[in-house]
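Sanity check. The docking grid for uridine-5'-diphosphate-glucuronic acid depends on where the pocket ends up, so I'm generating a full predicted complex first rather than guessing from homology. Inputs follow.
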Amino acid sequence: MQLSVIGCGYLGAVHAAAMASLGHQVVGLDVDEGKIAKLSAGEPPFHEPGFEDILKAGLASGNLTFSTDYADVASADVHFIGVGTPQRRDGGGADLTYVDSAIQGLLPHLKEGALIAGKSTVPVGTAARLAEIVRPRGAHLMWNPEFLREGFAVKDTVDPDRLVYGVSPETGDTDVATLDAVYASILERDTPRLVTDYATAELVKVAANSFLATKISFINAMAEIAEVTGADVTQLADAIGHDVRIGRKFLNAGVGFGGGCLPKDIRAFTARAEELGRGESVGFLKQVDEINLRRRQRVVDLVVDAFGGQPFGHRVAVLGLAFKPDSDDIRDSPALDVAVRLKGLGAEVVSYDPQAMETARRAHPQLDYAASLDDALDGAEAVVVVTEWKQFKALDPVATAQKVARPVVFDGRNILDPEAWRAAGWEYTGMGR
Ligand code: UGA
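Predicted complex below; grid placement will be based on this.
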């Protein structure tokens, strides 16, 4: 089928290449000329495992092209909208500028009966509003939220755990058949596919992310209690996680969640619920956000305390900048936030991340970036682990102790073995353990 994907960020670029890998003819469109030039040359503009392979394969097969010109997507049967919906500068709500301009850009180029499938995370009510705009052009609109995780984006796109189609009552049957044809090879594997109305599909996405954020903040709240009682939150998570109704996933306490999705989605949901007069229904999300932000400050406080309240001039190795491993994404990253706060307090912060050095340097040129993990550790008076990269998890406490000036470690992700580190002479502090 002929497809277009409007917006070539983490979501759109992966979706475009993944759809090409399923055999479709895909044009990826973005207004950012630099990004389109890179993608056209087979260079991923961000780090995502497996993406470069499907990008290069798509380009080589001729199934995948990129453009900045809406005229180039005019022949598409289905247009996926994968643009960003960041937090508004003037509040917690979602900024829909990019979604609106994608629709406006498409309007003159829609062929009769074309289907627009929105994938971006939008406030409930958006699809119904956009449907009114595209209907006079003879186009159809549905909402098909995306649940991919960064670091697993390719796998999650070609092998999702479910598909959700939010459709209109008028054209729903036709639109379901069209999208089923796009995802035929995914549906052959009996992937659950739920057909809903617009509002439900929009809510499924924010409800899922709100639930995940709540689960993380729940365990971080338990970490706060563990800190004043001497309990170990990791053992607590293991123990409650054995209950299949609770489950162990997303119960890792630490510096909390970040990224381009969870933080802004809970804020946008709160703002939308307030607009709808149901602010109290999701009032707990404000606490989820507050608990989450407290954990970043908690790590900073622990480090400051280790220097008797005077971190000025002390060398601190901050391991991690990305908001999660296997990503170079630093949007709302707890790791980067910790580095910036410590630097702001006068500590001599040296940061290292296996992938996110460039993205961090662009956003925060004032920070010091080590050339390697060893360079970051060299002479450190405190080591702070803030992204759960496997390289950090695999650090040998005995060898690492030889590199630093003082064996003091703060495990902001609870990924190190406290016993092994203490046995190697380290003063180990985890988060709620
Ligand atoms: C999240 C959701 O998990 C995806 O399902 C969703 O599609 C995506 O947002 C989106 O809206 O597009 P992602 O932002 O890639 O995916 O990141 P997560 O894997 O959810 O991790 C978010 C943050 O939570 C990271 O900073 C991670 O370190 C932190 N986290 C995760 C914890 O602190 N503890 C945990 O137990 C798990």
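Relevant for the grid: The longest strand covers residues 2-6.
Also worth noting: Residues 121, 146-150, 209, 212, 216, 250-252, 254, 256-259, 261-262, 323-324 surround uridine-5'-diphosphate-glucuronic acid (CB under 6 Å).
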